[in-house]
Structures are given as structure tokens and as C-alpha cells.
Amino acid sequence: MPRPMMIRRSAALIALCLLMPLAEFTCAQEITFIRAQVDSGKDLYKESCQLCHGSSMVNGQFGTPLRGSYFQDKWNGKSVGELLTFVYEKMPPDKPMSLTPEQYTSAVAYILSRNDMATAETPMSTDKATLVKVMLHW
């Protein structure tokens, strides 16, 4: 390989290595959802979740708490995509994967809002691959 070509490739490789940490940093995204998703999720929660998880999300007879320290400790450091996938694949227990992606996303938005996460001006995506980059932290 001619020397100038090798120098250009080396320079490109060095530049790529220097930019990779920046790319990883910018891949992390903020949690966003809008009031309409929360409102829709609240209605859905009453219809499909409240029976097991309780009216206050911590007083259910059959389901684990979805609000407070138990929920936050369980999901802290995991992604919104992981949470959405879990809810999609497992809930409701008698009919998993029976709701639309928008309904599952709204349910997750409602749960997050009840865990002190504020609404934003950007709706939560229904794309699990995108939401895997959105980390939960309390």
C-alpha cells in the first residue's frame, strides 16, 4: 500500500476512535411522553391493569407495585424499551400482546408519570429499538 494511502487510513481510523465516545454519548436519549399519552394510559390502566395492580398502583392483590421504590428499584438502569417489551410480552397476563403498540406505549407513559417523570412536548415513540436507548434513572 502506498504510504500516503496508509496515512489517510490511519488518520481516518484515529478520527473514528476519537468520535466513538461522543457517538455513544449522543445515543442516550431523554424520556419523553405527552399529556395525551398519559391520559390515554390512565384510562387503559383502569380497564386492563387496575384489577391486578390496584387503584393506587401499589395496592394490588395479584400484581407487583407499579409506583414507588419497588418499581423504581426494579427498573432503574434499564431502558424504556426493556420496560415496554416486558409489558407488551406479559401484560395483561390473560391476554399478552393483545393491545396496540400505541396502547402499550400510553400505559408505560402513565406508569412513568406516576413515578414522578414529567410530560414533555414530544410523544413517546412506539419503536422499541429507539426506546432501548432511553434509560430509566431515579
Ordered list of secondary-structure elements with their pairings:
Layout (H helix, E strand, L loop, with lengths): L2 H25 L7 H14 L1 H4 L15 H7 L4 H11 L10 H13 L14 H4 L7
Helix pairs in contact: 2-6, 5-6
Provide an overview of this structure.
- It is a single chain.
- By secondary structure, the chain is mainly α.
- The protein contains seven helices and no strands.
- It has helices at residues 3-27, 35-48, 50-53, 69-75, 80-90, 101-113, 128-131.
- Helix 2 (35-48) packs across helix 6 (101-113) and helix 5 crosses helix 6 (101-113).
- It is globular.
- The model is unreliable at 20-27 (pLDDT under 50).
Task: Estimate percent helicity.
Answer: 55-70%
Spatial extent as radius of gyration: 20 Å
Q: What's the mean pLDDT score? A: 87
Structural class: mainly alpha
Low-confidence stretches: 20-27
| Morphology | globular
User: SSE string, helix = H, strand = E?
Assistant: HHHHHHH
Strand content: under 5%
Q: Biggest β-sheet: count, sense, barrel?
A: none
Give the key terms:
single chain; 138 residues
What's the short story on this structure?
The chain is mainly alpha-helical. The chain has helices spanning 3-27, 35-48, 50-53, 69-75, 80-90, 101-113, 128-131. The protein contains seven helices and no strands.
